[in-house]
Amino acid sequence: MSFLNYLINGLSLGSVYAIIALGYTMVYGIAKMLNFAHGDIIMVGSYLVYSSMTMAGLHPVLSILIAVIGCMVLGVVTERVAYRPLRGASSSLAVLITAIGVSYLLQNLSLLIFGADPKAFTSVITWKGITLFDGALQIRGTAIVTILVGLVVLFGLQAFIRHTKSGQAMLAVAQDKGAATLCGIDVNRTIAITFAIGSSLAAVAGVLFCSTYPTITPYIGAMPGIKAFVAAVFGGIGSIPGAMIGGLTLGVIEILSRTYISSQLSDAIVFAILIVVLLVRPTGLLGKRVMEKV
Amino acid sequence: MLKTIGKKYGFYIVIVLFWLLMTLLGNAGMLTSHFSSLLVPMTYYAIAAVALNLCVGILGELSIGHAGFMCIGAFSGAIFSLLTKEVLPGGLRFFLAFVVGIAFAALFGFLIGIPVLRLKGDYLAIVTLAFGEIIKNVLQAVYLGVDAQGVHLSLDMTTFRMEPDGLTLIKGAQGVSGTPRNSSFTVGIIVLLLTLFLVHHLMDSRDGRAIMAIRDNRIAAEATGIHVTRYKMLAFTISAAIAGAAGVLFSHNVTTMTNISNYFNYNASIMLLVYVVLGGIGNINGSVIAAMILYLLPELMRGLNRYRMLIYAIVLILMMLVNWAPGVQERRRRLKAFLKTRLTRAGKEA
Amino acid sequence: MKKRVLAMILTTALSALTLAGCGGGGSSTTGGSAAPATSGGGTAAAGGSFKIGAIGPMTGDGAAYGLAVVNGSKLAVDEINAAGGVNGFMLEHKGEDDELNNEKSMNAYNTLKDWGMQILVGPTTSGCTIAVSDLAHEDSMFLLTPSGTAVDCVKYDNAFRVCFSDPAQGTESAKYMAEKGIGSKYAVIYDSSDPYSSGIYESFNAEAAAQGLEIVSAEAFTSDSNKDFSVQLQKAKEGGADLVFLPIYYNQASLILKQAADMDYHPVFFGCDGMDGILTVENFDTSLTEGLILMTPFSADATDDLTVNFVKKYQEQFGEVPNQFAADAYDGVYAIKAAIEKKNLTPDMSTEKICKGLMEAFPEITISGLTSSSLSWDASGEPNKEPRIFAIEGGKYIVQ
């Protein structure tokens, strides 16, 4: 029974990683950039919800909407100002470093605006969850909602990419920017849409993340950002179901290794397992093998 | 003749002149203590940036775990110095600390290189990140000490028992402290010069050309009979070893390594990557300059108080856009051409 | 070509920066060395002032702690100046950021030295304090850390601290639990990547064994995974622990309290001085803290005039309720004032002489401050004060 409990805890942590990884992998797969600022957009989203809901007293749904729109604008603006000029630079690392700059910028801006003291987030999910077997087994409401939202996002994204013009354009851009341009696809517009969607997903992830772990500081985005990156790679970069599975697996591994091996070394164990998985499947769990052409 | 010497050794001369200038100013009491305390970190971050550039720019493999190798060098060097503090004279001990630190970093580079170099691109990058985090996490949990009974190693502080006269080397999160402060600007510059010499020499050698051939086209290189794995391992191990040397300088400057998650984590690795990219990927000398400037920048902005890190972030983004954006580069080229024609025309008219 | 141009631009920038550094050097070195040079006369001229520096993380993860130390010491300095200074001399104050990084802390120290610092109130955290104490020892600079708890922070004779050391906190906590008979089975959740937290746990564990306390689970977390505590809490619950010892900072503790409540686990929680501040977390549901016991020197709810006045002024100036970091720094400045008065030190003395005077004065003074009504020091640098234990009832600290 206690194993089941730990497994559920793992899934609940993993669901948070998964929802962050979904936004991450989308930007990553289509714009082909490691967006190190993605975690910080999550942080901005959480502060937006916090200030509109707790400080301004707005309705939760309205607050979430404000956060989603705010993050969408932020994502598009940073893409336009900081990332787009570097498209076509001689190395893909250039945009990665700029993303790090954006990450520092957002962190320090929030530090100046909101201060260093942690703020407690009012959870938007008030449902306590399901208790089974007289309390021996407990599934938290936040976990259930996060997994459900994750699934909705997953299928929504899949449908969007398969059945809309913009989605098809994204696939084309992801595969070959040059050829996409030749087919009359506006690459800049497509990538801007990708960032808009990715960043609004970050806002949603921020709300769910902070509902589960309700303390906000200007630096809360950094670690989830890295973990989501790991989860995205774990599942196979660019694969949307892979991000979901990667996130859930990562959460379960983290919790189980902390439970049964060592709570001090759980970070190391998670990373060691990641390495082993990548050695066996060099492109992640659901990643496609790309044939090398000479 | 003079031109070739200038081309080949110009940068060494610049560094030596920089050292001379700083030393003279320092001796004349013209440097603030703040500025002179920055000189040593500037050298070791420059060395670490060169190490990473060897991996990223020359070998062409993105690593975001190089702070881990620096960490290995720092810890092994510091432990050696602590053990021999009473036995060996300062200079020799410090030299041997370098040998130990470099050897351990190289060993880890080699061992980690075996699995890492089988992967490609971003997958390789994330595995280096993973190794960097593993090194950090394990070192934070380790208790290591020596006493009359021998060596004690434990991952659990509650079972770690030492004789009263024992010497505790690593104390979990409380890290290593009491390392002698042997690093100086002069030693840092010497190590930097040796590093540059080694890397430039490697690039000009047969091995170096093979490594760069692999970077430019692995399949073509393999087809011409270059042993890809061997050369990749060579470059990666040397890169780790150099990062280890930077680590030894680090630990013998800071003397107390606690809370290592604040300076040997992936953020530190990414910081090194920032130095490399801003200095120019594959441009070894550029890494040195970029590392020094970017280390100085936030320190010299201390007067701006709480705004300094914000301004640093903006400067970083702007520098990237100016140096890398194709649009900006094009505009710069046009401006230069424009000025050139204007000047020559003006010259003709005059 | 492009690379060369870039290299040239960078070199020019470097030399410009270097020169900027030198320029600053010229002026402030003279400023710094002027003090000993003029020590013969020139006191009366402008009265002179003592320069007090403070160091702590003002950006980055630990910013809340460093800002509190800098603000707390600043408040004390302003108050003292408004009341006429120390023996007629004014105090000057300057805070520097160390980003919770030993190397940056050393840089911060050197920046303050260039400014002419004569007395250091800081650094804020243990690792940084140990690293900086090496430098301060070489320079004979008096160092008083408000909150560096590790044993080694005060290993030099010129280093003192305001807070209790890690071993003192761990040992006192275990003793208190045994004496008062709170709890029958104990669990610990600590941060194994933090020297403060693991230091307290180490000594707690030793004393708990001596007192015969039964520890059913001791689980760690690290700064890389400090959000989800379900495993640690689950293990404590399964072991039947009715007291959970949390030698950690309030930031993580607030998450632990929430998660424990969510899983319907309600043991007694027991924290150390890092727990102080939990009530000041904005928008935090303080009902979760009901019954929390903490050993901290400072209570913002205390009703004595000193505390009321301090909390009011701090809130006016900085917009936040002060925590023990701020209080420790505040008391530290007042202790320095008392010590200066005791030995009749003057700002024109050399830093060394001031250091020596303060080192002699500290074991002799007793002050009444925010963190203790009678605060005195050993020559070893450790404070003598009674440990204060509070329990939280109805969102307020109640003295135990």
Question: What's the layout of helices and strands?
Answer:
The complex is a heterotrimer of chains A (294), B (350) and C (400).
Chain A: H1 2-31, H2 38-55, H3 60-83, H4 93-114, E1 119-120, E2 129-132, E3 137-140, H5 141-163, H6 165-175, H7 177-182, H8 187-212, E4 215-216, H9 222-235, H10 240-260, H11 266-280
Antiparallel strand pairs in A: 1-4, 2-3
Helix pairs in contact in A: 1-5, 1-8, 1-9, 1-10, 2-3, 2-4, 2-8, 3-8, 5-6, 5-8, 6-8, 9-10, 10-11
Chain B: H1 2-27, H2 33-58, H3 66-83, H4 90-116, H5 121-141, E1 143-147, E2 150-154, E3 167-171, E4 176-177, H6 185-204, H7 206-216, H8 218-223, H9 228-254, E5 256-257, H10 266-279, H11 284-300, H12 308-324, H13 326-349
Chain C: H1 2-37, E1 49-56, H2 63-82, E2 90-97, H3 102-115, E3 119-121, H4 126-139, E4 142-145, E5 159-161, H5 166-180, E6 185-191, H6 195-211, E7 214-221, H7 230-238, E8 243-246, H8 250-262, E9 268-271, E10 293-295, H9 305-318, H10 324-343, H11 351-361, E11 366-367, E12 375-377, E13 383-384, E14 389-393, E15 396-399
Parallel strand pairs in C: 1-2, 1-3, 3-4, 4-5, 6-7, 6-8, 8-9, 9-10
Antiparallel strand pairs in C: 10-14, 11-12, 12-13, 14-15
Helix pairs in contact in C: 2-10, 3-4, 5-6, 10-11
Strand content of chain A: under 5%
What is the number of E strands of chain A? 4
Q: What's the CATH first level of chain A?
A: Mainly Alpha
Order of helices and strands of chain C: HEHEHEHEEHEHEHEHEEHHHEEEEE
Quick one: biggest sheet of chain C?
A: 7 strands, mixed
Order of helices and strands of chain A: HHHHEEEHHHHEHHH
Strand order of the largest sheet of chain A: 1-4
Distance between the termini of chain C: 74 Å
Task: Provide the gyration radius of chain C in Å.
Answer: 23 Å
Do you know the CATH architecture of the largest domain in chain C? Answer: 3-Layer(aba) Sandwich
Question: How many domain regions of chain C?
Answer: 2
Could you name the CATH class of the largest domain in chain C?
A: Alpha Beta
Strands side by side in the biggest sheet of chain C: 7-6-8-9-10-14-15
Which band does the percent of strand residues of chain C land in? 15-25%
Task: Decide which structural class fits the backbone of chain A.
Answer: mainly alpha
What general form of chain A does the structure show? Answer: globular
Name the largest protein-protein interface in this structure. B-C, 60 and 60 residues
CATH superfamily of the largest domain in chain C: Response regulator
